[in-house]
């Protein structure tokens, strides 16, 4: 009985030490020295004061920082489907991959288009974007960079603490002498191993997002994206006239759609009016 209590006390001590280790590793300081609840970064890993993410990779100093970059790109191409093939080749040559891809050939009622989700190595992003822009006329491009240094460091610290706790529990299991102790240790060990695997999956996903930027590429046919606004008096008149004709055309289409309904409603209204008149005449006669 004393031996059982002794092993149990050692087990509780190991669990408490693991908890202390996890809590001590989850405290960090920002550039001003105040506690921010993350992991204490190494002296060379601290972000320089005043640095910020501006949304473009060329303006972001990513040295000693973990940055997740996402963006979108719209290009007008003569043949969007052929341009999609070229975009895949450009991405793969840069060491990236295509997570999703959809192509819509031209039909009688819709122009051709293509949409791709590209994963591009972060260190090849600027060069790859420059090549993608040569596929046609650039409509717009947006990039967003998010600093996740603290998040990745926090995950690393928690994984390290759980690994230490698992090793201690394995050592206790090897020296356990009773079934009760083994069951208690195995339960605690299973819980910590499951938590560590979950955190490791999160860390792997975050590392993939850091290493590969995600870019949504849209390829459209000529005439799909409206041109810029008028820049002089005559082009303004032409634009206004075109808008007027378009509006009148839309009004005629709406009138054509509503006309059958209006006819039916007029007939129903006439029938109801006739019935009302008949009843009114019968009341007067009575």
From TrEMBL:
Keyword Transmembrane helix found: yes
Ranges where the DUF4349 domain occurs: 65-272
Key word Transmembrane helix present: yes
Highest taxon of the lineage: Bacteria
InterPro entries per the UniProt record, alphabetical: DUF4349
Stretches for region Disordered: 23-59, 86-112
Signal peptide coordinates: 1-26
PROSITE patterns the UniProt entry points to: PROKAR_LIPOPROTEIN
Pfam families: DUF4349 (PF14257)
Chain intervals with Polar residues compositional bias: 103-112
Compositional bias annotation for Low complexity: 23-40
Transmembrane segments: 258-280
Keyword entries, A-Z: Membrane, Signal, Transmembrane, Transmembrane helix
UniProt-recorded name of the protein: DUF4349 domain-containing protein
Biological source species: Cryobacterium gelidum
